[in-house]
Amino acid sequence: MSSHRLGTGGLVDRQTPIGFSFDGRPLTGLAGDTLASALVANGIRLVGRSFKYHRPRGIVSAGPEEPNALVEKGRGAYREPNTRATTVELYPGLDVASQNRWPSLRFDVQAIGQLASPLLAAGFYYKTFMWPAALWERLYEPAIRRAAGLGSLSGAPDPDFYEKAYAFCDLLVIGAGPAGLAAALTAGRAGARVILLEQDFALGGRLLAERCEIDGMPGAVWAREVEAELATLANVRILSRTAAFGLYDGEVGAVERLTDHLAVTPACMPRQRLWTLVAAQTVLAAGAVERPIVFGGNDRPGIMLASAMRSYIQRFAALPGRSVAVFTATDDGWRTAEAFARAGAPVAAVIDSRRDIVASVRALAGDVPVFLGARVLDAIGGQSLSAIEVIGDHGRRRIAVDGLAVSGGFNPDLAMTTHLGHKPRWSETSLAFLPDALPAHLVVAGAAAGRFTLAEALADGARLGAAAAGMAGKPAAAPPAWRASDETFAVGPLFHVEGGRGKAFVDLQNDVTDKDVAQSVHEGFVSVEHLKRYTTLGMATDQGRTSNVNGLAILARLTGRTIPETGSTRARPPHGPVAIGAFAGLHTGPHFKPTRLTAGHGWAEEQGAVFVETGQWLRAQWFPRPGETDWLESVTREVQAVRSGVGICDVSTLGKIALAGPDVGVFLDRVYCNTFSTLPVGKARYGLMLREDGFVMDDGTTARFGAEDYLLSTTTVNAGKVMQHLAFCHQVLWPELDVQMVSVTEQWAQFAVAGPQSRALLQQVFGSAVDLSDAAFPYLACGAFPLGPTMARLFRISFSGERAYEIAVPAGYGDALVRALMAGGRDLGVTPYGTEALAVMRIEKGHVAGAELNGQTVARDLGLGRMMSTKKDYIGRLMAERAALNDPDRPTLVGLKPTVPGVRLRAGAHFLPIGAAASAENDQGYMTSTAFSPSLGHWIGLGLLARGPERIGEQIRAYDPIRGGDAVVEVVNPVFIDPEGNRVHG
Amino acid sequence: MRIPCPYCGPRDSSEFAYLGDAAPRRPADGDAAAMATYVYLRDNPAGPMEELWYHAYGCRAWLVVRRDTRDHAVTGARLAAGREASA
Ligand SMILES: [Zn+2]
Prior knowledge:
Largest sheet of chain B: 4 strands, antiparallel
CATH architecture of the largest domain in chain A: 3-Layer(bba) Sandwich
Helix content of chain B: 10-25%
Helix content of chain A: 10-25%
Distance between the termini of chain A: 95 Å
Bound molecules: zinc ion
Mean pLDDT of chain A: 94
GO biological process, one term (chain B): tetrahydrofolate metabolic process
Low-confidence stretches of chain A: none
CATH superfamily of the largest domain in chain A: FAD/NAD(P)-binding domain
Oligomer: heterodimer
CATH topology of chain B: Folate-binding fold
Mean pLDDT of chain B: 92
Organism (chain B): Microcystis aeruginosa DA14
Strand content of chain B: 35-45%
Protein name (chain B): Sarcosine oxidase subunit delta
InterPro entries (chain B): SoxD, SoxD_sf
Distance between the termini of chain B: 25 Å
Pfam families (chain B): SoxD
């Protein structure tokens, strides 16, 4: 049996010992222990070093409010720093280490003389930043970084995975103490859909740690019976090990720990699950956190919240000290004295700052020495508490102790009520902030509402649970009236004992002292928000649960204000630390967003394609052949194959929107700057779409297959945006137009067949029944033809400038189609080509694409001004007429070629007049797209150049300082190949 | 935040794309100044506001959603297509 384990009592299983290690030292705990209770049971006091001053620190609490006992859990990539020992469930093989110490916890170099201490006073980072920068970098920052800190990250990728889940209910209950259990049971019995959250692994809250009775049975037994009944109700879901961390608009965020307590993680089990919970009503029953008192040396290991000491004794059967004193301003502290007496270790003294104590409370201490109207001035000791100095009517007295239970009052855990901006109010009777204005659909029960007795908690829970069930249309039978044992919760005002010799800590986690608060006030930071930021009080991961109110009280006294006048800082989610991985869920690495594959993807893989991400799509970029060592070699071959024979390219990723109805022509006239109402059936037309501010949004072709049957295409990346825009135009602007539209991007597989031999290939595939002669199917024709078991849509459109077609089939036939095209073209030397060759050929033809359609160009800039109809209104017309958008000085599309063959051009290079300095004033535009043209044998580019079209033949400088490019280029017609456009018919 | 889509019921706001103030109406008479106002000028009220939201990952309907900009309380949504009739 461990040195400080009690022989009887508690909710631990003495038959199930659990081996674990702390700083490499093997220890034994029991099933039912937390790491903290197992350390207490082993008599371990010193568990860490503090953030700034490296002071020895012990366990302060028994719950998630723990500011001190932060440890590193796990090894290697599984290492998790700053884990609260009070929330870690013990399991076999648990391996934890203390933090922020070197070389060891007992002997820490930084703590000697507290070397960095002067650097770390309040506001240190604001002040040190004012010093010379060189000193900061070389001296102060490294010193501070070495000195200040908590645990360290592994630096390795998180090896665990996480998932997200959503759930809906009539009543969400946060906290499964007496109030929460009462609410869940009342609503659950009525048939309402209930979700009950509990951050602990056991339900019951304070019932697990207190000597109390409900309906004549011990509180922990009552909790177990309620849990058993809830488990039988199909409409109730219990989520234990699940901490609510934030109230958001209409939903609660919570994180469920699934494997953190398991020695062996089952395969495929996520470590944690992030819940989004949507509830018609939420009952916050999160209880209250005991408040420490600020006095000299109040951080010594062995000083603990009074209620936490009771938890260790009565829930975990672990004795936090053999000779403990109680320092209290509340009735609650006296219950701790009773707990020690029952455990056979009567306390050394009870020190209460109050003088009037009711007899029943006074009796809890039995006959131990009691000091009323007294305070603890200083706590003395090194790595563990050895004595306290008490000041009172008797003067000063030193009492030897090995522990001190402290109770300064209770802070209701009401942070969730403030996440949406609602402010709590200060109660002079409870000496605590209590919920005041509440967010919609959230109510507060029990101690979280400042109703601290067991009877009040049960009554609140029953009443609010019944009300929530009633609102859900499930009226409860008469809510149960549970009988609870008596309790008192009187409290006196005591936040701070002045005059002690030792450092007096307000915020233990961030090492903020009473002197830091005084210095902040002295320097004029008297607003509570300034105090917080200047001293970092309450800004640690514990969110100031144990420190905020004391800090406020000290600030109030120093500034001569009351606590309500001083105000309070606003709590923001998350209420407790949440792993970033939980927020990411499964959206990590390649799963960050979906990957979309075309119907021809498998075929392209067989062909050895190199793929590129285009939006969410993977597209074949080029198809290297054996012996090709460079992408440019492959791309050049593919371009030459298309221009001399025939090539095939998967263009399925282009957005496709089907439009139907009698008003499609009118509609298209309004959304494109050029005219579509004149488009005949069986024809396709290129269109340019503007935004309402006059800038170009997207381009693509629209084909008309029937009187009321159109298919519009968009660029790959803008498919979603254009769909949204067209839906807006129809539903919001012109709902009177009789048009229906639907995205069919994924319904069709589409391939470009390009090159002088393209017709021959298609004729081979379609057979002689389909007439593809230029007379029957001329340039810009479209039509539907039978192909095998389906109908194929054929478009005679060209991006490459060659004779070309696009052929589309329902996506399920896409793989068969591309194989048929390859088979049909074998004798013609058909060559698959990718997006790079596609881009080379469009640059050779001067077609604009994404680099030019960049949201900053108008049609005129792209040489497409004449597409803008003057005979109709359309989106963007009026704004595009603005003078500044028609200024000839605007950069306008031109072609560019190097004056010295062999010089490589790079997109992004800026244009300067030759001889001009490289400055923003001399900037005349930039290169948007470049390619090596296999047809011309040199690099070519497209660019946007001020007064570009007037400057054909001029030489300018293309300057690219980032990649060291600096070339003289000639301004040329952007159509490099076949400017007459003959080959499209060839 | 949840938006009550008339077609789909209450749905998470992450399914929707936000556009902005639903009040401006596209001028039809070719007045450039009125068009500039429509394109660029928006009120920024603190309080209830009617806004255009698009149910992109749902029914693809454009909605007029009534939302309080101070606390994100959504108090109603209707189809934008019928807004003139019900306004
Ligand atoms: Zn919808």
